[in-house]
Hints:
Blueprint: H1 12-21, H2 30-43, H3 47-55, H4 63-90, H5 93-109, H6 113-126, H7 130-146, H8 150-165, H9 170-186, H10 190-199, H11 212-226, H12 229-237, H13 240-245, H14 250-260, H15 264-279, H16 289-305, E1 310-312, H17 313-320, H18 324-336, E2 342-345, E3 350-353, H19 358-384
Antiparallel strand pairs: 1-3, 2-3
Helix pairs in contact: 1-2, 3-4, 4-5, 5-6, 6-7, 7-8, 7-9, 8-9, 9-10, 10-11, 11-14, 14-15, 15-16, 17-18
Amino acid sequence: MSDDTVLPIPNLALAQNYFVLSTPSLEHLHGNARKELLEGIQADQMAPYYRIVTATNALPLDESLLAKMEQQNKDELDKIDERLEEAKKTEGETDIADALRARANYLTRIGDKEKAVEAQKLALEKTPGLGSRIDIVLTLIRIGFFFNDHEMITQHLTQAEELVEKGGDWDRRNRLKVYRGLHLLSIRQFKRGAELLLDALSTFTATELISYNDFVASTIISNVLTLSRPDLKKKLIAAPEVIQVLPELPVLSDLMKSLYDSHYDKFFLALAATEQTHLKPTRLLAPHTRYYVREMRILAYNQLLESYRSLTLDSLARSFGVSVEFVDNELSRFIASGRLHCTIDKVNGVVETNRPSVKNAQYETVVRQGDILLNAVQRLSKVLY
């Protein structure tokens, strides 16, 4: 096997299927997820992971299947251990490292988290090549993604970045961008994550972590929220990599283009469809569904309001394809939280914008920072005197 071959282990599609089966609101997806999860577990002989998913009733326990897979695991590990012992007796450090990696990768494949992590760390200690060491750390990150262990992901992302800075090649640097970008999305840091995914769009190779279509979908979802309108057209809508995949992502195509074209009624429909097809069913994005939908609505309201000094509630409601009552309640909530710079004249049914000038905003920033500095100086003087 080539040193550059990246094994798709653990199989992250199975973690996605397990998430779907663990979410009652996604019952309409359970049939397909159950079938794919069981087939994937059998294909990779994942006895330890099968125990986990059957313990939560995501799959029914088949004792004969479990016994069969456990025997397969034992037989394969015995062979690998035999090879390792032979390498220790007669071969050099490189062959020992290869045997250790083979053992670590098998434990990773079958979903035995604790033993896999321990074995990967041992292989990391004994592996001399920088490229191979980076690959091991990336595997540890994928184990973190598979088991939704954010602490583990963060720890090994830092380690991977340190190794890459010592001389990682172009391909591994680009893979790491995708790993970092997806992790940032999973912890709701959409802007930083979106930048990394967009940067990796034309050089994507990290199929061991996420399929290409799902990667493009994540790139669209995050960047529609964070890019300015001109950049949305230039960097996303007109990107060849996005254009190529859009026919397979019709909902996201509608979301992106309707926002850019200011077709807000279509945008609201596309946003609702995105929530049901790309946010709630996706393991990394599901916890941020309400946040994302709220922020996208605020973005659309701001985009429309910045074109007018005032407009009627009725015309605003018609633009978004909703009732006057709905838009009145939603605007009131966003105005109260300081997310929209406008006021509602309910007597006349008019929304008036009151965007703060740039100079006023700069002045407020200087005053606020000055107060912070003065408070810090006062605290320091009390300590010194």
